[in-house]
Design goal:
By secondary structure, this protein is mainly alpha-helical. Helices cover about 85% and strands about 0% of the residues.
Length: about 180
C-alpha cells in the first residue's frame, strides 16, 4: 500500500498542476488516467470511473490523443468487467483495441487490450473469439515486450481457454511456458 500511496500522491500533484495550467490538454487527460489507475488499484472503482470519464471528456475535445483514449477505454472496460457488465466491457475493449491498434499496434498496451478483450469474450461465453484475441495478445506481447507480465498473462489465458475447450495437454503446454 505504501507504493500505491506514493504513486497516488505524485499523480495527484501532476494532475493538479495539469488541470490548473492546461485543463484541455493531453497532459491533463494523462494525469486523470494515472490517478484513475491508482484509484482502481486501491479498489475504488467509482473514483477510477470518474477520473477516466473526465479524461475521456477532455480527449473528446482534442484532435490527438488516440493512444491515451485507448488506455482510458481499456481502464473503463476493466471497471465494467469487474462489475459484471460484460456487454459494456466488450464494447469498451473493442473501442480501446481500435484506438491502440491504429496508433501502437505492436506495444505492451496493445497486448494488454487484446488480453482484456479475450477475458471479456470468455466471460461472455465466446471461447473461440477469446482464443483469437489471447493469441493476438501473445503474439503482440512477444514482439513488443518479450517476457513481460502481459505475455505471461496471455500464456495463462491461452492455457485456461485450452482447458475450457477440453484440451488439457495444450493447456499444460501453455502453463509450462508461463513458468
Amino acid at each position: 500500500q505504501g507504493d500505491l500511496a506514493t504513486a497516488e500522491e505524485l499523480h495527484r500533484t501532476a494532475m493538479t498542476h495539469a488541470m490548473r495550467n492546461a485543463p484541455d490538454s493531453l497532459d491533463a487527460a494523462r494525469s486523470l488516467l494515472n490517478v484513475g489507475s491508482v484509484a482502481s488499484g486501491r479498489g475504488d472503482l467509482a473514483a477510477a470511473q470518474r477520473y477516466n470519464q473526465a479524461a475521456l471528456r477532455i480527449l473528446a475535445r482534442l484532435p490527438t490523443g488516440r493512444t491515451i483514449r485507448g488506455a482510458v477505454l481499456n481502464n473503463l472496460g476493466q471497471i465494467a468487467l469487474e462489475r459484471g457488465e460484460t456487454e459494456k466491457a466488450l464494447r469498451l475493449f473493442e473501442r480501446a483495441a481500435a484506438d491502440i491498434n491504429a496508433t501502437a499496434p505492436v506495444s505492451y498496451m496493445a497486448s494488454t487490450v487484446e488480453l482484456n478483450l479475450s477475458e471479456a469474450l470468455s466471460a461472455h461465453g465466446d471461447v473461440a473469439a477469446a482464443r483469437e484475441h489471447a493469441d493476438k495478445a501473445l503474439d503482440v506481447g512477444a514482439r513488443a515486450a518479450p517476457g513481460s507480465g502481459s505475455t505471461l498473462e496471455a500464456l495463462i489465458a491461452r492455457g485456461r481457454l485450452a482447458r475450457l475447450e477440453g484440451d488439457g495437454d495444450l493447456a499444460e503446454e501453455y502453463f509450462d511456458q508461463a513458468v
